[in-house]
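Hey, can you fold this?
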Amino acid sequence: MRSWFPPSLGDILSSMPSSEVPVVHSDPAIMGGTPVFVGTRVPVQTLIEYLEAGNPLGEFLEDFPSVSRDQVIAALEQAKDALIARAHAS
């Protein structure tokens, strides 16, 4: 029996179609390669932690004004699509 583990953020990002506009990227010169929102130094993990803690999206956007609402929505949509595609592939 194969055990299933949730995909890492890196797995999700690498499985996204290249035709999608990048809203998240990883560069070894920026925060050691931590996935961040494009044009910022804000880790995507920070958004996930805010949401996991039950904080509203507006609070994240207020605390990190360099990240736009459109970037957050696009990143969540891309992650959703990647998770659904991965589930269908299993």
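Oh, and this one too while you're at it.
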Amino acid sequence: MTHVFVDGDQYLDSDAVFAVKNSLIRDFTREAPGVAPDGKKIDTPWRKLHTDFVLSKAAAPRRSTTSAPAA
């Protein structure tokens, strides 16, 4: 997952590159004004997303089948 979409967004059905998938739609909770996760004061409502990002192991690099020129 490299992109997430807000559940209920008015543009979910009109995505020009067809990247919206159900597995990428998330619920961003509404938070009241107060203290942000970084400790700063926020005077307006804000949204928070809680999700787990899972990284997959990289594939082994392919070996070239061509030989290097003789020196």
